[in-house]
Specification:
Length: 123
């Protein structure tokens, strides 16, 4: 489970992991395929509106897609990467964590719920 006060993920086996210390390949996202197709279509449409837009249109586009304070004059590649990242994170994804210590798979479907842990079957 995630402890927001200490910013540490704690597996059922007791392993504690901070976000910046997670081993590559232990965290991920699951997404229903029907959501992915819809999302990619939306992303393509929205990015097409941004590419080549004048300053006013670009500022309006950024204001619609990002929190207040996001720089309107940032590098176009960074803006697109941020848009892709945040649109994936907010599209019904399930967060995953595979414990490198015990092999449990933890799933989080909604930030208002608790993580669900699944223990691998023994061979």
């Amino acid at each position: 489970m995630w402890d927001p006060e200490t910013d540490v993920f704690v597996c059922k086996c007791g392993l504690e992991v901070k976000p910046d210390e997670a081993i590559e390949g232990t965290t991920g996202l699951l997404k229903p395929l029907h959501n992915q197709v819809e999302l990619e279509s939306l992303q393509a449409t929205e990015i097409a509106k941004l590419v080549g837009a004048d300053e006013g249109v670009r500022a309006d586009w950024i204001a619609r897609h990002f929190a207040r304070g996001y720089p309107a004059d940032g590098d176009i590649e960074e803006v697109i990467l941020d848009f892709l990242y945040f649109s994936h994170r907010n599209d019904g994804c399930t967060a995953t964590f595979e414990c490198p210590e015990c092999g449990r798979l933890a799933l989080l479907h909604d930030v208002n719920e608790d993580w669900r842990f699944y223990k691998p079957e023994s061979a």
